[in-house]
Amino acid sequence: MTRDYFHKMKGTTQSPPRVSTFEMIWSWVGACLGIGIVGFINSQFFEKGDLVLMIGSFGASAVLIYGAVKSPLAQPRNLIGGHLISALIGVLSFKLFGPHLWLAASMAVATSIAAMHFSKTLHPPGGATALIAVIGGPKINQLGFLYVLVPVGLGITIMLVVALVVNNIPRQRRYPEFWF
After folding, report:
1. Which of 62, 82, 129, 137 is the S-S candidate for 31 at Cβ 3.0 to 4.6 Å?
2. Which of left, alpha, beta for 144 (phi over 0: left; psi -120 to 50: alpha)?
3. pTM of the predicted model, to two decimals?
4. What is the pLDDT of residues 51-79, one digit of tens each?
Protein backbone atom coordinates (compact mmCIF):
# COMPACT_ATOMS: atom_id res chain seq x y z
CA MET A 1 0.00 0.00 0.00
CA THR A 2 2.80 2.43 0.85
CA ARG A 3 4.58 1.52 -2.36
CA ASP A 4 1.43 2.25 -4.41
CA TYR A 5 1.08 5.57 -2.66
CA PHE A 6 4.60 6.69 -3.58
CA HIS A 7 4.35 5.16 -7.06
CA LYS A 8 1.56 7.64 -7.88
CA MET A 9 4.07 10.46 -7.45
CA LYS A 10 6.02 9.19 -10.45
CA GLY A 11 3.53 10.77 -12.84
CA THR A 12 1.83 9.32 -15.87
CA THR A 13 2.79 11.61 -18.75
CA GLN A 14 5.74 13.52 -20.07
CA SER A 15 6.29 17.23 -19.92
CA PRO A 16 4.34 19.11 -22.60
CA PRO A 17 6.28 20.49 -25.55
CA ARG A 18 7.62 24.04 -25.52
CA VAL A 19 5.26 26.64 -26.98
CA SER A 20 6.24 28.46 -30.16
CA THR A 21 8.25 31.66 -30.18
CA PHE A 22 5.13 33.37 -31.50
CA GLU A 23 3.18 32.30 -28.38
CA MET A 24 6.02 33.40 -26.12
CA ILE A 25 6.12 36.85 -27.70
CA TRP A 26 2.35 37.41 -27.47
CA SER A 27 2.30 36.15 -23.88
CA TRP A 28 5.09 38.62 -23.08
CA VAL A 29 3.27 41.50 -24.82
CA GLY A 30 0.02 40.79 -22.97
CA ALA A 31 1.65 40.43 -19.56
CA CYS A 32 3.79 43.53 -20.04
CA LEU A 33 0.80 45.63 -21.08
CA GLY A 34 -1.63 44.20 -18.50
CA ILE A 35 0.65 44.52 -15.49
CA GLY A 36 2.11 47.76 -16.86
CA ILE A 37 -1.27 49.46 -17.18
CA VAL A 38 -2.34 48.34 -13.69
CA GLY A 39 0.95 49.65 -12.29
CA PHE A 40 0.70 52.92 -14.22
CA ILE A 41 -2.85 53.58 -13.00
CA ASN A 42 -1.71 52.78 -9.46
CA SER A 43 1.14 55.28 -9.72
CA GLN A 44 -1.03 58.01 -11.22
CA PHE A 45 -4.23 57.74 -9.22
CA PHE A 46 -3.97 55.52 -6.17
CA GLU A 47 -0.50 55.62 -4.67
CA LYS A 48 -1.07 59.05 -3.14
CA GLY A 49 -4.29 57.80 -1.54
CA ASP A 50 -2.45 54.88 0.10
CA LEU A 51 -4.42 52.30 -1.89
CA VAL A 52 -2.43 49.38 -3.23
CA LEU A 53 -3.75 48.56 -6.70
CA MET A 54 -0.98 46.12 -7.57
CA ILE A 55 -1.32 42.84 -5.69
CA GLY A 56 0.91 39.82 -6.10
CA SER A 57 -1.80 37.46 -7.31
CA PHE A 58 -2.14 39.55 -10.48
CA GLY A 59 1.24 38.19 -11.59
CA ALA A 60 -0.10 34.65 -11.46
CA SER A 61 -3.28 35.72 -13.26
CA ALA A 62 -1.11 37.26 -15.99
CA VAL A 63 0.55 33.87 -16.55
CA LEU A 64 -2.86 32.33 -17.12
CA ILE A 65 -4.72 34.98 -19.13
CA TYR A 66 -1.77 35.92 -21.35
CA GLY A 67 0.28 32.72 -21.37
CA ALA A 68 -2.28 29.91 -21.10
CA VAL A 69 -5.24 31.45 -22.92
CA LYS A 70 -6.97 28.12 -23.63
CA SER A 71 -6.86 26.92 -20.04
CA PRO A 72 -10.26 26.70 -18.33
CA LEU A 73 -8.60 28.38 -15.33
CA ALA A 74 -7.77 31.44 -17.48
CA GLN A 75 -11.28 32.20 -18.75
CA PRO A 76 -13.12 35.40 -17.73
CA ARG A 77 -15.58 33.56 -15.48
CA ASN A 78 -12.70 32.09 -13.53
CA LEU A 79 -10.61 35.26 -13.51
CA ILE A 80 -13.43 37.49 -12.29
CA GLY A 81 -15.29 35.05 -10.05
CA GLY A 82 -12.16 33.49 -8.60
CA HIS A 83 -10.64 36.79 -7.56
CA LEU A 84 -13.83 38.47 -6.32
CA ILE A 85 -15.05 35.47 -4.32
CA SER A 86 -11.60 34.94 -2.83
CA ALA A 87 -11.17 38.63 -1.98
CA LEU A 88 -14.50 38.66 -0.16
CA ILE A 89 -13.64 35.49 1.75
CA GLY A 90 -10.19 36.86 2.59
CA VAL A 91 -11.64 40.06 4.05
CA LEU A 92 -14.25 38.10 6.03
CA SER A 93 -11.58 35.74 7.35
CA PHE A 94 -9.43 38.66 8.48
CA LYS A 95 -12.41 40.30 10.21
CA LEU A 96 -13.41 37.08 11.97
CA PHE A 97 -10.01 35.63 12.82
CA GLY A 98 -7.61 38.61 12.47
CA PRO A 99 -6.08 38.33 15.94
CA HIS A 100 -4.94 34.83 14.92
CA LEU A 101 -3.36 35.45 11.51
CA TRP A 102 -2.41 31.80 11.00
CA LEU A 103 -6.06 30.82 11.41
CA ALA A 104 -7.36 33.70 9.28
CA ALA A 105 -4.89 32.82 6.52
CA SER A 106 -5.69 29.11 6.47
CA MET A 107 -9.45 29.74 6.60
CA ALA A 108 -9.22 32.33 3.81
CA VAL A 109 -7.31 30.10 1.40
CA ALA A 110 -9.17 26.87 2.15
CA THR A 111 -12.60 28.48 2.05
CA SER A 112 -11.83 30.36 -1.15
CA ILE A 113 -10.78 27.10 -2.85
CA ALA A 114 -14.02 25.43 -1.77
CA ALA A 115 -16.11 28.41 -2.88
CA MET A 116 -14.36 28.61 -6.25
CA HIS A 117 -14.96 24.90 -6.78
CA PHE A 118 -18.60 25.28 -5.79
CA SER A 119 -19.14 28.25 -8.12
CA LYS A 120 -17.12 26.74 -11.00
CA THR A 121 -14.73 29.72 -10.90
CA LEU A 122 -11.48 28.00 -9.88
CA HIS A 123 -8.62 30.41 -10.58
CA PRO A 124 -5.43 29.50 -8.65
CA PRO A 125 -4.36 33.13 -8.12
CA GLY A 126 -7.62 33.56 -6.20
CA GLY A 127 -6.05 31.66 -3.31
CA ALA A 128 -3.30 34.28 -3.20
CA THR A 129 -5.89 37.07 -3.38
CA ALA A 130 -7.59 35.64 -0.28
CA LEU A 131 -4.24 35.28 1.50
CA ILE A 132 -3.21 38.85 0.63
CA ALA A 133 -6.44 40.13 2.21
CA VAL A 134 -5.22 38.60 5.48
CA ILE A 135 -1.45 39.11 5.43
CA GLY A 136 -1.16 42.12 3.10
CA GLY A 137 -0.37 44.48 5.94
CA PRO A 138 -2.05 47.59 7.32
CA LYS A 139 -2.69 49.26 3.94
CA ILE A 140 -4.59 46.23 2.68
CA ASN A 141 -6.31 45.40 5.98
CA GLN A 142 -7.58 48.97 6.40
CA LEU A 143 -9.38 48.74 3.06
CA GLY A 144 -11.81 46.20 4.50
CA PHE A 145 -14.46 45.27 1.93
CA LEU A 146 -13.22 48.00 -0.41
CA TYR A 147 -10.37 45.54 -1.13
CA VAL A 148 -12.85 43.52 -3.18
CA LEU A 149 -13.51 46.49 -5.49
CA VAL A 150 -10.13 48.26 -5.38
CA PRO A 151 -7.59 46.80 -5.91
CA VAL A 152 -9.09 43.43 -6.87
CA GLY A 153 -12.11 44.36 -9.02
CA LEU A 154 -10.45 47.25 -10.79
CA GLY A 155 -7.20 45.37 -11.35
CA ILE A 156 -8.79 42.28 -12.87
CA THR A 157 -11.05 44.42 -15.05
CA ILE A 158 -8.02 46.19 -16.52
CA MET A 159 -6.19 42.92 -17.04
CA LEU A 160 -9.24 41.31 -18.66
CA VAL A 161 -9.69 44.19 -21.12
CA VAL A 162 -6.00 43.95 -22.07
CA ALA A 163 -6.34 40.17 -22.49
CA LEU A 164 -9.37 40.60 -24.76
CA VAL A 165 -7.56 43.12 -26.95
CA VAL A 166 -4.07 41.60 -27.09
CA ASN A 167 -5.03 37.93 -27.30
CA ASN A 168 -7.32 38.56 -30.26
CA ILE A 169 -4.89 40.59 -32.40
CA PRO A 170 -3.15 37.59 -34.00
CA ARG A 171 -5.29 35.24 -36.07
CA GLN A 172 -3.76 32.23 -34.33
CA ARG A 173 -4.97 33.24 -30.87
CA ARG A 174 -8.44 33.59 -29.45
CA TYR A 175 -9.59 34.62 -26.03
CA PRO A 176 -11.83 33.73 -24.33
CA GLU A 177 -12.75 30.14 -24.97
CA PHE A 178 -15.95 30.73 -22.97
CA TRP A 179 -17.52 33.40 -20.77
CA PHE A 180 -19.97 31.46 -18.62
Report:
1. 62
2. left
3. 0.93
4. 678 999 999 999 999 999 999 999 999 99
